[in-house]
């Protein structure tokens, strides 16, 4: 019995985003469950290469079906991650804003039409189900926790016009006992402060990382006016007060400005406020319900600093945080709910691994891919990838490490990771600059052999299994100087323990690093640059490697290093436009009142993601249909005699994933990088 859970948007990758609330559209995913067991799960962003994808999860569905050897017609039930009434209300808002649009006001008809168009199957509309958003969150956590009973808290921005819930899980049943209105949203409370610190939605984790640099007391009085703790474990937030108060105190920051101490102090006060509210809520409900197990889901559950405070509070004996706690995880909850409704048993074993995404290509295909980039890469074969990787990082290299099936959720857990020596404190600044192109304060996580974790990190008694990077814990004082690259300014780290039975390849890498250095810990961060999601396919990994300053790439049983490519090598590549890129020319007034023409590469998923083009390159790209040679493109642009300026412009667009560059022999040779038909080679 197959059940498919879906999250995400309601338009295709090349179409402009529908004007719907952001919570309705982001973090698309598909999860396929067979008789209560997860067969496959992947976020759409990993495949269509759009961060927090707000598109219909077509590629994710294709992958899940291919993994099961099934067609869409074989699926017994399909669940979407919101109620039908909520979807219809949002479609009504869209119609009011865009009355000339062609979007139907019936969400069931819209979803059915998308599935029919994308897959060609006539699906019985009765197989389509709209699942309450926070119930899907709750089930996704409790069903995978392995607990017989638990208190369940879901907290996020909003969904179904709510912002969270409290539920009780017993056996195979989840019963909601309380819901929080959208006006009580802790996600929106956090985001409102984030906006005044110069950040945008999905940047909440950056402010969490900034908080330890601040003094919570400086803005505590101001934040005390932003919320109230009520006697019955309730709370009230006053989001409308935040902006004026921060402006009055000169505590705001424009995006791109340097950070000053007051900004760190605001972040610290915000983090303290969130923790106080959540602990207040949970303490009352634990006492009244008498439950000492806790499951967490919803986007706010990714606040691993808050989770760490809960872990050490002593309030609960067991805490399980669903590793894909954000909206992509609702696809998991929806699939599990439908599976249970059809009589399948619920999962009873505690979740230990989430390597549910596409597998790497076979060795022959990976070798062909790397050889296709032969002008840019040197290829080495390795009899033992873990030993080769350990040699590299022990010698100071920062490497990409790509093995096996990709992880479901926002964390790289050792299969699509950047790995480095955790000891030199300089590695943190180095990786932030060379790969992520991000703020230097941002911390990195440690991956530690599970059996030795308690020697390096302060853990609750009897607990050493933390495989999903969901908790911030103290680094032991006598290890903080040793682990300079992963120890945050407040002496903590976002831990990932690695068990041999859960990820043998990654465990061997860490063990091999220990054999060379005596330290059973490596630095682990997600393998991507600042313009893209975590890599998924071998092609993604090669392109990310070539557009960052990583020292080496260990993929499958191969080691790749960069070569210095000539201008002729660049000219021999093929260029194409991703499906989500559109070219636009506009006329507007400049600041001095003159009419000027702008040439841009824009995207179908965000008005913020765009780049200004030179007129010559814009005109040349307008002629591209499919793929063409870079040399041919530059000839069309009139740059045959001096190609370097336009080559540099093209390479920058490539680094920002606004064009694709790929060797002609790779572009034109079919290969199987995964079971997804439309794999992103570049």
UniProtKB/TrEMBL annotation:
Domain of life: Bacteria
InterPro entries: ATPase_NBD, Carbam_trans_C, Carbam_trans_C_sf, Carbtransf_dom, NodU/CmcH_Carbamoyltrnsfr
Annotated ranges, domain Carbamoyltransferase: 18-336
Residue span, Carbamoyltransferase C-terminal domain: 390-562
Coiled coil: none
Assigned protein family: Belongs to the NodU/CmcH family.
Name of the featured protein: Carbamoyltransferase
């Amino acid at each position: 019995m197959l059940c498919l859970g879906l999250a995400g948007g309601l338009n295709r990758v090349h179409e402009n985003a529908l004007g719907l609330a952001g919570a309705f559209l982001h973090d698309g995913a598909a999860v396929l469950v067979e008789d209560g067991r997860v067969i496959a799960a992947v976020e759409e962003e990993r495949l269509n290469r759009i961060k927090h994808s707000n598109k219909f999860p077509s590629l994710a569905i294709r992958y899940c079906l291919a993994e099961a050897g099934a067609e869409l017609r074989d699926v017994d039930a399909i669940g979407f991650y919101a109620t039908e009434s909520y979807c219809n209300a949002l479609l009504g808002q869209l119609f009011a804003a865009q009355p000339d649009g062609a979007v139907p006001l019936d969400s069931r008809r819209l979803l059915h039409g998308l599935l029919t168009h994308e897959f060609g199957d006539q699906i019985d509309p009765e197989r389509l189900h709209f699942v309450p958003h926070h119930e899907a969150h709750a089930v996704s956590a409790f069903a995978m926790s392995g607990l017989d009973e638990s208190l369940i808290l879901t907290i996020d921005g909003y969904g179904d016009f709510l912002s969270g819930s409290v539920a009780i899980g017993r056996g195979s049943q989840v019963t909601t006992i309380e819901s929080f209105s959208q006006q009580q949203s802790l996600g929106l409370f956090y985001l409102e402060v984030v906006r005044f610190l110069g950040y945008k939605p999905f940047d909440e984790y950056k402010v969490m990382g900034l908080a330890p640099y601040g003094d919570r007391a400086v803005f505590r009085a101001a934040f005390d006016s932003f919320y109230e703790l009520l006697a019955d474990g309730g709370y009230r937030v006053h989001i409308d007060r935040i902006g004026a108060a921060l402006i009055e105190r000169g505590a705001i920051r424009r995006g791109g400005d340097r950070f000053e101490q007051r900004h760190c102090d605001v972040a610290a006060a915000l983090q303290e406020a969130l923790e106080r509210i959540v602990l207040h809520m949970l303490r009352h409900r634990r006492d009244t319900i008498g439950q000492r197990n806790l499951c967490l889901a919803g986007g706010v559950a990714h606040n691993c600093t808050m989770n760490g405070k809960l872990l050490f509070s002593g309030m609960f004996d067991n805490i399980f945080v669903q590793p894909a706690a954000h909206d992509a995880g609702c696809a998991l909850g929806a699939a599990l709910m439908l599976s249970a409704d059809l009589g399948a048993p619920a999962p009873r074993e505690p979740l230990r691994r989430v390597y549910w995404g596409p597998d790497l290509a076979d060795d022959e295909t990976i070798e062909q891919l790397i050889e296709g980039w032969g002008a840019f890469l040197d290829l080495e074969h390795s009899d033992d990838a873990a030993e080769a990787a350990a040699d590299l990082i022990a010698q100071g290299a920062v490497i990409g490490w790509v093995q096996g099936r990709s992880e479901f959720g926002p964390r790289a857990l050792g299969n699509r990771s950047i790995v480095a020596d955790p000891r030199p404190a300089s590695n943190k600044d180095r990786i932030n600059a060379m790969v992520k192109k991000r703020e230097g304060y941002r911390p990195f996580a440690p991956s530690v052999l599970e059996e030795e974790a308690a020697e390096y990190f302060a853990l609750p008694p009897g607990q050493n299994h933390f495989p999903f990077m969901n908790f911030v814990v103290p680094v032991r004082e006598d290890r903080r100087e040793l682990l300079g690259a992963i120890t945050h300014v407040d002496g903590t780290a976002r831990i990932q323990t690695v068990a041999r039975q859960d990820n043998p390849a990654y465990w061997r890498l860490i063990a091999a690093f220990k054999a060379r250095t005596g330290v059973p810990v490596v630095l682990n961060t997600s393998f991507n640059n600042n313009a893209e999601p975590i890599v998924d396919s071998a092609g993604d990994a090669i392109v990310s490697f070539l557009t960052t300053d990583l020292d080496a790439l260990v993929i499958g049983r191969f080691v790749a290093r960069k070569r210095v490519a000539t201008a002729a090598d660049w000219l021999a590549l093929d260029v194409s436009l991703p499906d989500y890129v559109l070219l636009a020319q506009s006329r507007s007034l400049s600041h001095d009142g003159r009419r000027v023409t702008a040439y841009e590469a824009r995207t179908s998923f965000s008005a913020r993601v765009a780049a200004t083009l030179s007129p010559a390159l814009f005109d040349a790209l307008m002629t591209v249909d499919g793929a063409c040679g870079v040399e041919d493109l530059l000839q069309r642009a009139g740059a045959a005699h001096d190609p370097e300026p336009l080559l540099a412009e093209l390479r920058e667009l490539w680094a920002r994933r606004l064009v694709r560059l790929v060797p002609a022999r790779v572009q034109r040779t079919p290969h199987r990088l995964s079971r997804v038909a439309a794999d992103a080679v570049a």
